[in-house]
TrEMBL record:
Ranges for domain Cytosol aminopeptidase: 312-319
Organism superkingdom: Bacteria
UniProt name for this protein: Leucyl aminopeptidase family protein
MF terms in GO: aminopeptidase activity
Upper classification of the organism: Bacteria, Pseudomonadati, Pseudomonadota, Alphaproteobacteria, Sphingomonadales
Organism whose genome encodes this protein: Sphingomonas brevis
PANTHER family assigned: LEUCINE AMINOPEPTIDASE-RELATED, PEPTIDASE B
Length: 465
């Protein structure tokens, strides 16, 4: 993982290239103050200060010195990404804003310099560090923590499935526990089959080396309010016997994106020392095709005791989450949050950038929506529409795992999960893509954290030290 700490430093008035930020409203005034030579260079470059992420390097007239002028959407409200393009493109050196402080833009400065190069024989970008100096010294550590957590999600999701199975997710949880003094418990084999039968069933078609398991991490004081974080850890999803087509299977290494988000959120909670009793749960499986795979028409027993008829083996994520949510609820938590790359229906409805958020309480939903706006990490609330519960009726068992109707797929998946959450327990479910299909400044194509900063900001506000 990239070492972000050296890339943000307190500004002690050392030598650095100035970064001038302009927007559509301020550009003309800034240009008027420049020398004729600089104005000519701006005109030749056709830099108009209107297009966000556009920038130009200009000589200062003092020897070989130069500074940078960059367009942003709004100088008054800097986004986390407005400096990301500069961090990607500028040469090695030290930089500072000519006016003001970077604030949330520190995150993009860091992430713009992250590369996942584990599978490249030659690293293309050999430049040294681009260091941003800031007077906000107290915020540097938090920005680094957010960047570390974001890149934990990215790196885990980007890792090919051959190298990121249930055992590797367990290793990631153990590494996290070791770093923060947490405890890890793993349930596998016969104990998994007896205690978490739906997790065991989904993973039973995999090889012994990729056997299913439930990974749990506990941290914090017993007297603190318990917060349970659950992440879908399907390390590869073939669809099972209801096998996916090749086009649908190509990105299924990312089906453990919910687990990656859960691990990253746990990291932030422990690094920030939030006064909570953290309970992290990751049902880690591979949904494979073999003679041992569970079948359409099977009826599975769940940890909660509900019997689930299998309509579609490709609707496996909600099964493993159901058992994990049931276990989370047994600890009587004040709050349960789950992350999952759960449905294509959510992507059809909201596209790749917006995680679908479901919450069983308006106050919880409102606090998450407020946090999303404050940290520029968008989410969109979707309804837990009671009227669609009937789509989960089974002629044989207590419920089916997948509705017959092609409509409201994200909603019915969330309603399925709600059956496993104790009544009266606050719960939010994030159906997130965990993948960026095209690059943006600070956000390369590939795995990405979506909704992570929103949930952490909400938790910080609710459980502030």
């Amino acid at each position: 993982m990239t070492d972000f700490a050296p890339l943000l430093q307190p500004d002690r008035a050392g030598s650095a290239h100035a970064i001038h930020l302009v927007d559509k409203a301020s550009f003309a005034g800034w240009l008027k103050k420049q020398s004729p030579a600089r104005r000519m260079l701006v005109e030749v470059a056709r830099f108009e200060g209107k297009t966000a992420f556009q920038f130009i390097v200009l000589p200062t007239g003092q020897g070989q010195e130069w500074d940078v002028v960059s367009a942003v959407a709004n100088i008054a409200e800097l986004s986390p990404w407005c400096l990301a393009r500069l961090a990607e493109a500028l040469p090695e050196g030290s930089y500072r804003l000519a006016e003001g402080d970077p604030g949330p833009a520190m995150l993009g400065w860091l992430l713009g310099q992250h590369r996942f190069n584990d599978y490249r024989s030659k690293v293309e970008d050999q430049r040294g560090a681009r260091v941003l100096l800031t007077k906000e010294a107290a915020e540097i550590e938090r920005a680094v923590r957010l960047a570390d957590a974001t890149c934990l999600v990215r790196d885990l999701v980007d890792t090919p499935a051959a190298d990121m199975g249930p055992a590797e997710l367990e290793a990631a949880a153990r590494d996290l526990a070791k770093a923060f003094g947490a405890k890890v418990e793993v349930t596998a084999g016969d104990a998994l089959a007896q205690g978490y039968p739906m997790i065991a069933a989904v993973g039973q078609g995999a090889t012994r080396e990729r056997a299913p398991r439930l990974i749990e991490l506990n941290w914090g004081k017993d007297s603190a309010p318990r917060v349970a974080i659950v992440g879908k850890g399907v390390c590869f999803d073939s669809g099972g016997l209801d096998i996916k087509p090749a086009s649908g299977m190509r990105l299924m290494k990312k089906d453990m994106g919910g687990a990656a988000h859960a691990l990253a959120l746990a990291r932030l909670i422990m690094a920030e020392k939030l006064p909570v009793r953290l309970h992290l749960l990751i049902p880690a499986v591979e949904n494979s095709v073999s003679a041992a795979s569970y079948r359409p028409g099977d009826v599975l027993r769940s940890r909660k005791g509900l019997k689930v008829e299998i309509d579609n083996t490709d609707a496996e994520g909600r099964l493993v989450l159901g058992d994990a949510l049931a276990k989370a609820g047994e600890g009587e938590p004040a709050l349960i949050i789950d992350f999952a790359t759960l449905t294509g229906a959510a992507r059809v409805a909201l596209g790749p950038d917006l995680p679908a958020m479901f919450a069983n309480g308006d106050d919880l939903a409102a606090s998450l929506e407020t946090a999303a706006r404050e940290v520029s990490d968008p989410i969109w609330r979707m309804p837990l529409w009671d009227g669609y519960d009937e789509m989960l009726k089974s002629d044989l068992a207590d419920m089916v795992n997948s509705a017959d109707s092609p409509m409201a797929g994200a909603v019915t998946a969330a309603l399925f999960l709600r059956r496993f959450v104790p009544e009266g327990t606050s719960w939010a479910h994030f159906d997130t893509f965990a993948w960026r299909p095209s690059a943006k400044p600070g956000r390369p194509k590939g795995g990405d954290a979506m909704g992570l900063r929103t949930v952490f900001a909400m938790l910080r506000q609710q459980y502030s030290v």
